[in-house]
Amino acid sequence: MKHWERRRRGVFIPPVLILLLALAALPAGYLLIRSAGSGPAGMVSATPAPGGDRPGEHALTASGIPCTLTQLEEGAVHTGDLLLVNNQILYHFPEEQLLTSIYEGKTGSYYVRDKEVYIAPPALEALNRMLDDFRAQGGSKTVNVVAGYRTEAFQQHLFDQSVARNGREHAEEFVAQPGGSEHHTGLVVDFSLFYEDGTSAEYQGTGEYAWINGNCQNYGWVVRYKKAKEPLTGIGDEPWHFRYVGVPHAAVMTEKGLCLEEYTDYLKEFPFDGQHLAVDWGGERFEIWYCAGTAAYLPDSGDYTVSGNNVDGIVVTCKIG
Description:
Elements: E1 5-7, H1 15-24, E2 31-34, E3 44-48, E4 58-61, E5 66-71, E6 98-101, H2 102-105, E7 111-112, E8 118-119, H3 121-136, E9 143-147, H4 152-166, H5 168-174, E10 188-194, E11 200-202, H6 210-215, E12 221-225, H7 230-233, E13 238-244, H8 249-256, H9 260-267, E14 275-281, E15 284-292, E16 295-299, E17 304-308, E18 313-319
Parallel strand pairs: 7-9
Antiparallel strand pairs: 1-6, 2-14, 3-4, 3-14, 4-5, 5-16, 6-8, 9-10, 10-11, 10-13, 12-13, 14-15, 15-18, 17-18
Helix pairs in contact: 4-5
C-alpha cells in the first residue's frame, strides 16, 4: 500500500463490415446503445445451463462469454462503483475501505482543499484524466476539489450546521442525512473555484467549466444532482457534485437522461437469463447484465467488473471488444 493510501474501518459489402467501418470512424467519446433485437445486432441474451440456478453451473452468453454461477460474499450487494445511496437507501459502512489522498496523487491541473481529502483510487485516476484534458483544451487551473470521502460523524456535523444556519427545510433539500450521503462511498468529489489572487467562488459548471459538466461521462463521472431529478434524488440542483460510476455506465446514464435511482431500476431490465445490455463506447464494446441477490454469473476470464447496487443485486460489466 502506498503511503498516501489508507483503509477505512455495386459491390456487395457485408453489413457487419459496414458497421465496423462506421464504428471505427466515430469519435472516442461516442456512445452507441444497442437496444433492439437479439444477438450481435441488438441486445444479447444468455443461455443458462439446464438444471436451475446452482453455484458452479456454467452458461454462455449470446456473444460467446463463458460464465459460471458464483456465490459472492454477503456484502457484495453493498460494494462497488454503482452503489445507490440516498436518504432512503443508506450506505453500508464496511470494516475496511481503501481510500487515497487526492493531494498526494493529483496532477498539476487543479487544486485540492488540503491533504485530508480522500477518494477511491479508481475515481482519482479518472479525476486526473478529466481535469488534465480540461486544461489541455484550454481550461484554466482554477478547479478546487473541496470535498471527497466523509465519515458518518462528519456528515452529521454538516447536517446539524446547515440546520442551525439555514433551517431544517433548507438542510433537507441540500444536505444528505448521515448514512444517506454519497460522500461515504469515496466515489464523490465536490468542486469549488480558486483563483491566483487567493479568492474563491462557487462552482456552477457554466462558462469554461461547461466543458467538464458536458464531458464528465467520458471519464466515468456524472453530475449526480439536477433540479429536474429532485423528486427522485431528494437533493436540489448541485452542478458541483460529481459521482463516479465508471464507464460505460456514466455514458449510458447521460445518453438516456437517467439519474442513479432510475439507472438502478433500468439495469434490472437486463437479467442474466434474459436480454443483456450491449454498449459500444469509445471504441470498446461492453455487455452488461444484472443478477438478483449475491449469486451472480461471472465471466470465466477476461476484463470485467462486478458491483452491487446497494439494493438487491449485482451488476456485471464485461468488456467484449
